[in-house]
C-alpha cells in the first residue's frame, strides 16, 4: 500500500481530545479542554434560533453574510481604530482553526520559513508543515514568558515568509508587551514578512488591560491578517464561527483557499454573531471581569495546595509549576495520575512543544462554573493529602 501523507500519518490525537476522553472515562472534572461549561448570552442564541426558523437556510455568500462582515469591520473600528472595508477586507470562516489553515495555505509556499513561538497551540506545527513551510521555533520562557528579542531577530532572514503569533497566548496566558510587538513589527517590515495573528482571546484580558492588535503598528496594516473567534468572544465554542481581517491583497488569495475548504458557514449563526458584535461595553467588560474572578478563585485554591501558579494576564488558562510536589516524574505522568486518581483532568504543557519540552508545568482551564472549580480543588486537596507520606501512586 502506498504511503499516506507523512504530516498526519501517525500524528497523535490532540491532547485536548485525549484528556476529554479520559475525563469521561474516569468521571473527572474536565479542566483540560478550553471551553466554558455554560452557554453564551441567551439573546445571541435566540437570534440564531429565530434566523434558523425564518431562514433562508441555503448557501450564504462565500465571503460571509454582509451583515456579519460589516459587524466585524465596525468592531475593528470601535475597539482598535482600524479602518476596514467590509467588502474587500473581511472573510467569515467556520472557526478560527479553518481561518488559520486558509491563511497558511494561501500565503506560504513550499520551502518558506514560518516563525512560531513555543509553547504553541497544537495545530500550528502540522498546519505549517502541510502547507510546505519550514517551522522556525522560538520560545518564551517561564515564569514571565518573556520573548528573547535577540533570538527573535536571529530568526528572521530572507527565507522568512511569515510569523504566526498568538496574542493573547494559549497556553501561557501571556499578553505580548508593546515592546515585543514593536520588535516583531519592525522585523516584519525590514524583511518583508507576513504576520498571521491568532487573536481569538482579544476580549479576555484581565486587570484592566486592553488588547492591541499587531495590525495597528506602523507598516503592519498591509502585511497582517487578524483572526477572531465568536466562540471565545461569546462563549459559544461549538458554533465554530471565525473571521479574518486583512489587506485586500492578502484577503483575495485567502478567500480562494477558503472557498475550497468549507466555502461558507451556517447563515443563522452568522446573523447571531453579527448581533453579538454590536453588544455594548457592559457585555465585554462583564465577560473579562467574570473570567478574572474565576482565575482568582482557581489561583487561590491551587496556591494553597502548593502549586506554583504562574502569571495569567488573559485567556482561559492557568499554568502551574509542579516542581517539588512529589506528584510524579513529569507533567504527562502527573496529568495521567490526576485524572485517574483524583478525578481532575488537566493538560501537560509539554504537549505544546515540538520537542525538548520542559516537564514540570501543567495547565488548568478556569472558564467553568465556580462550583466546578471548587469541586476540582476539593478533589485535588483530598488526593494530595497523603503526599508527605509518599502514598500517591503506590
UniProtKB/TrEMBL annotation:
Keyword list, A-Z: Aminotransferase, Pyridoxal phosphate, Transferase
GO molecular function: kynurenine-oxoglutarate transaminase activity; pyridoxal phosphate binding
Cofactor(s) the protein needs: pyridoxal 5'-phosphate
The keyword Transferase appears for this protein: yes
Pfam families named among the record's database cross-references: Aminotran_1_2
Signal peptide: none
InterPro entries from the UniProt entry: Aminotransferase_I/II_large (IPR004839), Kynurenine-oxoglutarate_AT (IPR051326), PyrdxlP-dep_Trfase (IPR015424), PyrdxlP-dep_Trfase_major (IPR015421), PyrdxlP-dep_Trfase_small (IPR015422)
Domain Aminotransferase class I/classII large positions: 28-380
Gene Ontology, cellular component aspect: cytoplasm
Family: Belongs to the class-I pyridoxal-phosphate-dependent aminotransferase family.
Entry protein name: Aminotransferase
Organism whose genome encodes this protein: Roseibium aggregatum
